[in-house]
Amino acid sequence: MVKHIQKFLMASLLASSLAACASSGAVPATAGSDRDPYESFNRKMFAVEQTLDAYVLEPVAKGYLYVPQPVRRSFRNFLNNLISPVTLANDLFQGEMARASTTALRLGINTVVGIGGLFDPATRLGLERHEEDFGQTLATYGVKPGPYLYIPLLGPSPPRDLFGWGFDWLFDPVTYTGSDSLTGPIVRYTLDGVDARAANMGIIDEIERSSIDFYATVRSLYRQNRESEINNGVTNIDDLPDIDDLDDLDNF
Amino acid sequence: MRATLYSFAVFALLLLPLPLPAMAQGAAPDLDKARAFVTALADDAIVILSSETTRAGREARFSKLLNEKANMRRIARFTLGPFGRKISKPDFETYQALLNRFIVKVYANRLGEYSDEKVIVGKAQAKKKNVIVESRIEFANGRDPIDIDWWLRLEKDGSFTLFDVRVLGVWMAQEQRDSFASVLKNNRGDINALLDHIRSKISADPENS
Predict the structure, then answer these.
(1) What's the gap in Å between the CA of B50 and the closest CA on chain A?
(2) Out of B142, B151, B197, whose CB is closest to A212?
(3) Is A235 helix (H, G, I), strand (E, B) or coil?
(4) Mind listing the pLDDT tens digit for each residue in B114-171?
(5) Cα–Cα distance between A14 and A158 in angstroms, integer?
(6) Whether A132 contacts A87, CB under 8 Å
(7) What is the pTM assigned to this prediction?
(8) Are A216 and B156 in contact (CB under 8 A)?
(9) Domain B2-18+27-201 adopts which CATH fold?
(10) Cβ–Cβ contact A26 with B under 8 A
């Protein structure tokens, strides 16, 4: 347990020092769609990730696609079930009791009836899956993401989400399996990454091929998708940008 | 004088409520009509994606559909962001033509992933001339369903046009605007750099070589 607390403190220190760097900078704190104070560093890290993807992740994911689809489906169900205690903890932190009970019921049903999570009978019963993490919980408390950071193998990780990620380890059952608290989460994270890369092989390649600036596209996809996750996927027409003035622009 | 003012005020008060309901009726988008627009548009798109076997055929029909149902001029303006206010008319026309071809290429292929599907149109909400229609795409092969939102605009003639589509929480036109802004920023606002980037993406397409 001491080790977990140490790790948690280290993650907190890292995140708070990053956040301090960000807030002491001259850049205003508003999160504009192209605000990226460490862009040149991030682009280098993104290039490292691209290389790792081309030589390791993509070939491994392609190999994984030879595994029959129903087996991959069951493995995905298993991974989803395994992470659900983290979602449950964050549903509760956000005071979302209805969503918490959905997650708890899903966890119970899929673990028992779904044979350790290999099957997902809960969805068929109308209990739809969602994911929560501590980064989203902090966002609902009003914490801003901080500067955009791209970390190879972790992907887009602004300080708030990086800190949240560290905190979520405390509620992750695999942290408490095995001889140390690191191996379980790393193995799970790796398997999860390979499965996700394989499942989205076509669309990732298509987006990369059709993007005029793949780095900026990924940044936009991440920011928008994250915002949507924080709002639990609810569409609010008041959040749309104002486009009324575009109609007046045809007078040169 | 006072009597004149008084009668004028009474007259004005009598007239005042008259145009209001008429205006409100004209201004408030009809949500059922918006949902029907999306149902028809999604059905058309599915027919194209599932019946056209060649990329060229899919792109040609997709282009026709977009030109009929989307306001491409507004999309072009939006994707330029603040830069859209500085661009010259000839540059804008070049940009518009390239963007149309680019969008067709990108989305006819990105959407090629979603051909064996069923679209269930959900609820709609309106604000001023904007309507968002929610929908869910369900796949025949047991893949997780995807939520898609459609942002429509009520045009002056009372018809709807498509402005943007949100897939998995991401608005597509906003994503394009962000990456175009990045190219413009990294090329000191040179529109020709952006036009060249778009041209090279269009010509890099295997169907075009």
Answers:
(1) 17
(2) B197
(3) coil
(4) 666 788 999 999 998 999 999 998 887 777 788 899 999 999 899 999 999 998 889 9
(5) 12
(6) yes
(7) 0.81
(8) no
(9) Nuclear Transport Factor 2; Chain: A, (3.10.450)
(10) no
